[in-house]
Amino acid sequence: MHLSVTGTGYLGATHAACLASLGHRVVGCDTDVAKVEALSSGHAPFHEPGLDDLLRDGLATGALRFTTDPAVAAQADLHFVCVGTPQRPGSHAADLTALDAAVDALAPHLDRPCLVVGKSTVPVGTARQVAERLRTSAPAGGEVRVAWNPEFLREGHAVADSLHPDRLVLGVERDEDDQLLREVYAPVVAAGVPVVRTDLATAELAKVSANVMLAARISLVNLLAEVCEVADADVADLTRILGLDDRIGSLFLSPGLGFGGGCLPKDTRAFAARAEELGVGAPAALLRVVDEVNMRQRARTIDQAAAMLGGRVGGARVAVLGVAFKAGSDDVRDSPALDVAATLQARGARVRVYDPRAGVNAHRVQPALEVADGVEDACRDADLVLVLTEWPEFAGIDPVALLDVVAHPRVLDARLVLEPDKWCAAGWELHALGRSLGRTMRGSASGSGSGGG
Ligand SMILES: NC(=O)c1ccc[n+]([C@@H]2O[C@H](COP(=O)([O-])OP(=O)(O)OC[C@H]3O[C@@H](n4cnc5c(N)ncnc54)[C@H](O)[C@@H]3O)[C@@H](O)[C@H]2O)c1
């Protein structure tokens, strides 16, 4: 089939490349000229394992191309819309400006029957508004149908998640649109992936609802962790006990600095804002607390860092390991790690950050932060080391070797990636977010100031 994908960011670029790999002719369209140029040369402008290979394959066979011209995209028979839907400035609601602009740019060129398929995460009710917009502005008018096909991919696993999803959700109004989308995803459907055909509103709700469930779970486990801290209980044992319960499961059950990124925070807020508009504001208050508990983890991390520095943040040298919102990604959108790093810097600390992938993006967003090119470089002469993203390589840091690098062997592990026994045995003062204060580990060199040099 001939398909277009409008909006070629984390979601759209991956979607376009994966569709081409499924055998379709695909044109990706974006307003960002630099992004279109990068994608056209076979390079994703962000880190996503396997994506560059798919891009190059698609470009080489001619199955895939990119453009900034909506008229070119409009020549396809089916149009995916993957533009961003960030939080609206000054509000918790979703900002649909890019979605409206993308639809408005495509509409004048839609002069024959076709299907427009939303993949962006949107407030329930958006698909109907898009359909109305197209009905009044596309030359083909009512012949332009709308479907919603939410995307559940995870950054860092986006290619695998797109080609081998847990489920396909097809929000359609007609059998023919259901059939068309099953053809688009024919190899995925043939592989036995569950397909849920539903109405537009349920499909729109699917992605935000999944994110709201995950966000609530993370904040709940962070509440448990905070209680563990003051009750002298062990949150690692507690979550293991909970995870062994089949009804609860063990995934997304690790306490820490909380959720961030381009999806969970804004989707949680947008869901609550939409629920309020729909007259369901009272129960949606639950999500405001989820958000507050999440933001509280950042404040707790900053407070703990200040306490470990004896209250003297100004002038302290702080090493931050990890600024991506999660491991496996270079995305720093609403990153809790970057937020903590920038706040400590604003309070007068000299912060040096290192991230295996997100250093460039961190510097673009927070130019005042010094970006190091490795763990040792970041930690040189540090008074405190913070681990703020759960990159697996941080678990492999040799605490003995790092003693010679830092000024003071103090580490705050806000993602529970370090082995406390190993670090304490090496002589580090270690605090792990969520571990009880009584269990805060002090090594033999703690507070001696002799770890540097
Ligand atoms: N990133 C994810 O992991 C993920 C997963 C599932 C769903 N989503 C949802 O997908 C949507 C896109 O997210 P993203 O992370 O890819 O965002 P993104 O910011 O990486 O990409 C959005 C792209 O849309 C482009 N754009 C904006 N206005 C445009 C217009 N008028 N015409 C053409 N292109 C335009 C931007 O230039 C950008 O390249 C959001 O609704 C998000 O919630 C994201």
Which structural traits does this protein have?
single chain, 453 residues, alpha/beta, six-stranded parallel β-sheet, 19 helices, 14 strands, globular, binds nicotinamide-adenine-dinucleotide
- Number of separate strands: 14
Helical coverage, percent range: 40-55%
Ends distance: 64 Å
Gross morphology? globular
Question: Helices and strands: which structural class?
Answer: alpha/beta
Query: Beta fraction of the residues?
Result: 5-15%
Per DSSP, the total helix count is 19
Can you describe this structure?
The protein is α/β, with parallel strands linked by helices and 453 residues long. It has helices at residues 10-21, 33-40, 51-61, 70-73, 97-106, 126-137, 158-163, 175-184, 186-190, 200-231, 235-243, 264-277, 281-308, 336-346, 359-365, 375-379, 392-395, 399-403, 420-425; strands at 2-6, 25-29, 64-67, 78-81, 114-118, 144-148, 168-171, 195-198, 317-321, 350-354, 370-371, 384-387, 410-413, 429-432. It has a 6-stranded parallel β-sheet with strand order 3-2-1-4-5-6, with helices on both faces. Strands 11-10-9-12-13-14 form a 6-stranded parallel β-sheet. It has a two-stranded parallel ribbon with strand order 7-8. β5, α6 and β6 form a beta-alpha-beta unit. α12 (264-277) runs antiparallel to α13 (281-308). It is globular. It starts with a strand and ends in a 21-residue tail after the last strand. 51% of the residues are buried. Nicotinamide-adenine-dinucleotide (NAD) is lined by residues 6-12, 29-32, 35, 82-85, 98, 101-102, 105, 120-121, 151, 153, 155, 262-263.
